[in-house]
Amino acid sequence: AFRSPAGGQAVALPVPAPLLLALRCLLLGGAAAALLPYGASRGDRRLPDGDDESSGAVRLRRPLPFYEKPAFFAISLQIGTNGIISTQDFPRETQYVDDDFPTDFPAIAPFLSDIDTSGGKGTIYYREDDSPEVLGQVTHLIHAGFPSTAAAAFAPTHAFITTWENVAAYEEVSRSLEPSKKVNTFQAVLAYDDSDTYALFLYPPDGLQFFGTRPKESYNVQLELPARVGFSRGETDYLKREGPYYSVTSNEQSVKNLYQTSNSGIPGVWAFHIGSTSQLDNVMPAKVGEKPSEERSLGTLASTLSSSPTEQNVLDADYPDEIIDYAEPFYDENEDDDIVYLPMGPTQQVRDAYRGLHASYNEPRHSGASLDLELESTLPYPASSPHPSYPDVKSVLPYPVMKEGPSLASPSSEDDVESSQETGVRTPPSLETSDSLLELTTEGLPENPEKDHIQPYPDSGAAPSEMDIYPEHEVILQGYPENAPPFNRGRQVVGVDEDVSFNPDVFTYNPSSKETCEWNHSQCSQHAFCTDYATGFCCHCLPKFYGNGRHCLPEGAVHRLNGKVSGNLLVGQTPVRFSAVDLHAYIVANDGRAYTAISHIPQLAARALMPLTPIGGLFGWLFALEKPGYENGFSITGAKFTHNLKVTFYPGQETVQITQTADDLGPENHLSIKTHIQGQVPFIPENFTVHIAPYKELYHYSHSAVTSTAHRQYSLTLGRINRTFAYQLHQNITYQDCAPARQRWAVPAVQQLSVDRVFALYSDGERVLRYAIANQIGSSEGDDPGPVNPCYDGTHACDTTARCQPGAGLAYTCECTAGYRGDGRDCVDVDECAESFHRCGHGSVCINSPGSYRCECLSGYQLVVDRHSCVPIPPPSNPCEDGRHTCASTDRARCVHHGGGSFSCVCLAGYTGNGHNCSDVDECAEGRCHQAATCSNTPGSFSCRCEPGYHGDGIQCTPETTPRLTPCEQERHYPQPGIVPHPGRHEPQCDEQGNYRPLQCHGGSGFCWCVDAAGREIAGSRRPPGTAPPQCGTPEPTQRPQTMCERWRQSLLEHYGGSPREDQYVPHCDALGNFHPLQCHGNSGHCWCVDESGREVQGTRSEPGVPPPCLPSLAPPTVRPSPRPDVTPPATGTFLLYAQGQQIGYLPLNGTRLQKEAAKTLLSLHGSIVVGLDYDCREEMVYWTDVAGRTVNRASLEPGAEPETIINSGLMSPEGLAVDHFRRTMFWTDSGLDKIERARLDGSERRVLFDADLVNPRAIAVDAVRGKLSAIRACHTYLHTLIYYLAKFANYIA
């Protein structure tokens, strides 16, 4: 019986026994899963809408057995939003929703992911049901999956049904992206009686539209975690030890297959036995079609290939919606997600053998997440392939292989399979790809017939004799236990070599010698000891570490490599250049796998470089899995070497040179590599796939050099096109060995590197070139045909952070590497800082890292040579005080100290030069004195004296005679010659400046008239006494220049296009052009007081409706401000960059004064409005925002450099911009979107920092030293206001 739409009625139909048998045989051709009836009409309760809701305890009518006896009986259940059911309260979702199994609380998870039902995005129903109708349907589905006698007698008395209907994934709100419309529907049914509990997970056709969710804590990383499906017992006792758990899915493809396949014979119906009062070690899955929890032992290839098609692992088969899905991102600086390929057995050549290739790696449990790499492709050999013919294979491998154990026997019966289960299976093989699938790759083209003629490196010399480097009777390490922590640098540990081949009378150990360990032990790794030999000292790694002694890494640990790649290539006939693109590599050392990713490489070059696997192959050789008696590259070279590679392609004879240089190990033991590629490579058309078969190479070893010559073939395929090409390579690896220990060098002269798997991939969307290889280093004579211990071929089941310890025969044990703890199959990081296992001393802080820790010094301290202790930083010497400077004499120049040993020289006022050489300035020649003064030049100064007949300071001189009168004053006081003064004479009226007043009136007669500027009467203007005086015009006032307020107002109005919005600020000026004391921000109601320069008076900003009382502005100061005496002026060569309209200008400084005459325009950007501006002093690049083009741009200050747009989308009104040159990051504000964003300096890794509670954010500044960000906002001031309006005309200044 199957449900009608929600709330509808369901009809129970009897299912005959023959039909049940038919259901058990169906794989993909059977009826699809349908949900049991649910909804309000069935009495279901509904979970509240939200992102992290729970039902609270739902009490059951009878206890429900969960897991095995003596496990508890659950008396209540709790339903969570995130696709999970538990028997107890849920923790916060951030503590479990993004983690892998096991959980630390009981969990039943049909689809554990970050689900959000808020805003009507789906509904979650739940109820307990004991109706015969529902119990009958449940019983039929359980019997279909468990046809055995024991399960056939199971008759549930109750069923608990939980339904997630049309639920959505959590998404962060974004203005630029539409919400996803993908929703999921699925159902979990728990059927139980007094002794047993079975679970059904039901996934209807197309019920799953999304397959994972993005973690909240790193939502912008574009990383999606696949949903987890399975069961977990949780912590079992007060010691919080992990209980058993069972995981159904491992990657996105396995989640996609949930509704297309099953383990019960009915697609989309998954059945599990999850509780019993009798023995039940772990969850038992159904046995029909799929066996998701069974751990199969390795079967022989013959028996595996002969498996029945009905037992085929259909979850790993191809389906219409299957896509090539690589992990995103492939590498990240802080990511703990690891990607590896499953280990495999001996390679077999099989034609047309497989349709899908899944490679997955589940991350160690401590990180709580898993990330899987799926390589799903079809790689048939075409008819033209040179491979030999092999019999057709009728089916793909039916079951995955076990990682534990070397057995090659297939399980003989169903009971054997059941007993092979183990507690704590991380990922059930039913949803992962079998290792045997990986074995169905080809071994490659026929071997190079010339390989037997390859000669070793010419200077290799005779092969050294094989002997132990550290004979027990010669190396003395007293009292050092095997598991003791690394030596403290405060103690000197020296092993003294007693080499009997040397005369004891000639060599005597002398601790005072600089070539002994006493003086040089600091050159060894902190995980190494120092040994004195007759001719010097050498470093040797401690037990459980490997390397050359100067650089040691823990055995079994995973390693990361970082670096830069530059290239100058001719791809076909097209030149391609790239510089300093990122290279990251991830190494799983305990099985020899190496993954390399080169990002942001041009597509043309990336596709052409896919056949050049030696670029990543170097890392495979460095960390290859070692056979007994053989050593990988890092054990010999350590972390400092140079790899030179010459490759010649055939048939085109193109030649390319590759140089890879290793610098050292970083603070986190990350190896640093620089790679340069130069030459010509063949062009590879788009959409072609590169296939490289497994291969073997001989490496020849001599002191300080390793060489190899090889011939490889690769094929390009596209559809039915298959073409084979080849290249020859010559490798030369040089390094510095330890000469005193050469006679004890035990590395074989020739070793063979076996590359079992090799893949080269390029992602167009990500622009990432990837290499993945699995490597072993061993004998050049080939492997022993007998059984190989799993530690030596990588088929062990140890954790990626564990050492595989071989035992007798095929036995082995797993031991967590240094810095981790656990049983070896599951290892977790030890927090040495929290558990006080560190050795950080006074003045230092312990920082935990995966597998290790580091000590960082507090401010004012510095690390000493032991890397654990910190000592106070001595005060830097001051060259200006101790006389070590090179400035001119103190009467001519001043020495300016910049910290440490840095200083600059500045000539004193009155002198000119570069500070080291200063010459006197002749101020008299520059005309510093008044024309009526005598100038006298003196060293560093001058004097001015007014000439006779003048008085003043010499800078300004005025005549000593009576001041000259104006014509009006002259006429008023001194009548014209020939006119006799009399009482009735008219005395003209003069104004304050001595000019004629326009209206003149005779004091005696009472007549009035108008005069012009020369005092002449204007005809017709005279008026008799007693009448109204004439209206005399006043001279037109001279137009005054614009004030600062008016200029700023005009600049902003032009910026806003002449008509600002109501929420945009425009300065308010009074009638005289001064700033009005009260300024308000548009119609927002926010107001504040300003001073005479328009600067806000702190503490006066008010809320809407309550304007602050502001006093009238004061008169501007008349004295030019000068810097305080304790302020150091900028050094010579300092300049200001400013933005003005569509121009970016350059203004040099001379001390604290602007050299306006030397100002010039750097960039003229027509059609732009430049607002934000900053400068990257490391790369000499200027960055700016353009509100007209809505872009963020940059340009080099080099002559002829062209501007480059680095952000051109998602912007409305970008304004303020700041560059953090330490962290290579930029920040900008957008006053239109009310956002503050950040990105790398190349525009990548863009993210929004603030988009709430912002109103019109403008200027922004970053304190690169302290890592702090400050901004000016138009209305909110809870962030520190750091920048004020600095320039009269400039939009921005840097």
From TrEMBL:
Entry keyword Magnesium? no
Q: What CDD domains would the database entry show? A: EGF_CA, nidG2, TY
Would you indicate the residue range of the signal peptide? Answer: 1-33
Report one GO cellular component.
extracellular space
Domain Thyroglobulin type-1 per the UniProt entry, residue ranges: 965-1032, 1042-1110
Q: In which broad location class does this protein mainly occur, judging by the first location in its UniProt entry?
A: secreted
Q: Where in the cell is it found?
A: Secreted, Extracellular space, Extracellular matrix, Basement membrane
In this UniProt entry, which cysteines form S-S bonds? C1001-C1008, C1080-C1087
The record's section on InterPro entries has: 6-blade_b-propeller_TolB-like, cEGF, Dev_reg/Prot_inhib, EGF, EGF-like_Ca-bd_dom, EGF-type_Asp/Asn_hydroxyl_site, EGF_Ca-bd_CS, G2_nidogen/fibulin_G2F
The protein's name? Nidogen 2
Q: Which organism is it from?
A: Pelusios castaneus
